[in-house]
Design brief:
heterodimer, A: 334 residues, alpha+beta, BirA Bifunctional Protein, domain 2, nine-stranded mixed beta sheet, 12 strands, B: alpha/beta, D-Maltodextrin-Binding Protein, domain 2, 2 domains, 11 strands, elongated
């Protein structure tokens, strides 16, 4: 079976492609993905996370709640004129499901999923519109214990997947905004600085800070904090406005089993793009792959929007990126 | 070759072209051996020093994918490829250029076109920067993307003005073009792959600290 050019003169019919950013999965790859997901599923199940499935389509209003606002680029009308969206993540649908199907069930509730979510793509970048994610949501377990459980399941799942060199970056979304506020930075300036930080433009952060009437010492602190990242040693000797954040991360570290603790990198500059996180946030890295393999964190306000105000935490792994990283690690070993 | 000469195991994407010499001088100052790179015009990958060389506009591509841990390129490239997920760690100061709007000397054909036709035609190698600049200043522009010498476009009547990068303004002057607006100052920047920035934090911080001092 040779590859035939779609442009060849003898092609009888125009070949239909899948929409850009989507693709077919053929048996060899599917077998590997299936085996990978089975290994992860076994970890989720043994930790008590029952698998759920929710519809790919949701009402638009579900994704437009106060603390959610996860935009989906795919909107359509049903036969009654309702606006539907293709889900852009799994956390919001599960929050919706808990509010409607578990209005009074005892907590904590534990769910897992293996499902596609849909994102917009920038042209010509080879990005996926359809992302296969494996993840869990732990609902009704506050931090730090709930955060510790989510991190433990995450690392156990990656171990079971066979990924060897991964690390999990742990930050706190409230840390840097609170630091800016405590040093008297006005709201408009805070938003400009946080926007530069979200795109990883540290030169831009420095530029914005230089325009503010700050003490030299405070300006240096604000420049230094988002660059603090590393093992437990970065939590040593934190004082002043960082003392509380450092103490929170140390508490987390002390509650983790050694096998999980050794995977953690503390990252004071971690700023995920999803808007519903309220505290600890995670991002998963592997040296064999240039982009994060997944992420997660605490979202203590989201469930309240769906009628069950409960603290919660979870994570999602990008299964295809994980597969690429596994292959890259494997090829690096031979 | 000792580890000290390898920038602590980091792979660095170095731009050929206008920023090449300045970048090699900087790396030399940081203790990275650049002799081989200077002596080899055609070779692209230098394993011993951790340097890979490429066009400036390819640097963000390699760094975003993690094929290089760090890279050096112009702010013009980063502005044009703003969607790249790379960290911008330091303004290196050298390679200073201006991104400008320029048109033929005499009465500005661009403002004449805007007044009488409502839209100005702009040739550029930087379509994103150009359209953003005209959009943010409330003017309608039709962007014509060219790959080669932009200066030719207004002289032949293809466009009313150009958006281009200029260091000294000599090429503009030689083609009877004058600077009408300055869009931004562009210098060389140090960028990093976000995953490498977390996993090789110590090596990257050591390098950035030495650059700053």
């Amino acid at each position: 079976m040779g590859a035939r050019s779609a442009f060849s003169a003898d092609s009888q019919t125009m070949l239909d492609r899948t929409p850009s950013g989507t693709r077919d999965v053929l048996p060899d790859e599917m077998r590997e993905l299936r085996a990978l997901m089975d290994r992860i599923r076994a970890v989720f199940e043994s930790a008590g996370y029952g698998e759920v499935s929710t519809p790919a389509l949701e009402y638009e209003r579900t994704f437009a709640r106060e603390s959610a606002r996860v935009s989906s680029p795919y909107r359509l009308f049903d036969e009654h004129g309702n606006v539907l969206v293709l889900r852009s993540d799994m956390t919001v649908p599960i929050a919706r499901m808990v509010g409607s199907r578990y209005p009074s069930a005892p907590t904590p509730l534990r769910f897992s999923y293996f499902a596609h979510s849909y994102r917009g793509v920038r042209p010509q970048r080879g990005q996926s519109r359809e992302i296969l994610q494996a993840g869990v949501e732990l609902i009704g377990a506050p931090g730090p214990e709930g955060t510790v459980e989510a991190l433990t399941v995450l690392c156990d799942a990656l171990d079971a997947a066979g990924l060897e060199n991964f690390r999990v970056g742990v930050g706190d979304v409230t840390l840097y905004p609170a630091l800016l506020e405590s040093l008297g930075v006005e709201r408009d300036s805070r938003e400009l600085i946080l926007a530069e930080l979200a795109t990883g433009d540290f030169v831009g952060v420095e530029h914005e800070l230089s325009r503010l009437p700050l003490d030299e010492e405070d300006a240096q602190l604000l420049l230094r904090v988002p660059r603090i990242r590393g093992g437990a040693d970065v939590l040593q000797g934190l004082n002043g406005p960082l003392q509380q954040a450092g103490a929170g991360m140390r508490t987390l570290l002390n509650l983790l089993e050694p096998r999980t603790a050794e995977r953690i990198i503390f990252d004071f500059g971690l700023m995920p793009s999803l808007g519903y996180y309220t505290g600890a946030v995670f991002q998963i890295y592997d040296p064999a792959y240039g982009m994060p393999i997944g992420g997660g964190g605490r979202y203590d306000d989201l469930l309240g929007d769906f009628g069950r105000p409960l603290p919660a935490a979870g994570f999602g792994l990008d299964v295809e990126r994980l597969h690429i990283a596994l292959r890259a690690e494997e090829r690096g070993r031979v | 070759m000792s580890e000290a000469h390898r920038a602590q195991g980091l792979r660095i994407a170095v731009p050929r072209g206008a920023l090449f010499e300045g970048t090699l001088d900087l790396l030399e100052r940081l203790g990275i051996d650049t002799l081989q790179v200077r002596e080899n015009d055609r070779k692209l990958l230098f394993e011993e020093s951790g340097i890979i060389t490429m066009r400036p506009s390819d640097v963000p591509t390699y760094v975003e994918a993690g094929a290089a841990d760090l890279g050096i390129t112009g702010k013009d490239v980063l502005m044009e490829q703003a969607e790249r997920e790379v960290y911008e760690l330091a303004d290196l100061g050298y390679g200073r250029c201006l991104m400008v709007v320029a048109s033929e000397a005499g009465e500005d054909p661009a403002s004449d076109a805007l007044r009488r036709l409502g839209v100005v035609r702009i040739a550029t190698k930087y379509p994103r920067i150009a359209s953003q600049h005209f959009l943010s200043t409330g003017r309608q522009a039709e962007i014509v993307e060219v790959k080669g010498s932009v200066e030719l476009a207004p002289l032949t009547g293809l466009v009313d003005a150009i958006v281009d990068l200029t260091a000294t303004g000599t090429t503009l002057r030689e083609n009877n073009l004058v600077i009408r607006e300055e869009i931004s100052v562009c210098t060389a920047r140090l960028i990093a792959n976000p995953v490498a920035d977390k996993l090789k934090a110590d090596a990257i911080d050591a390098l950035v600290t030495r650059i700053a001092n």
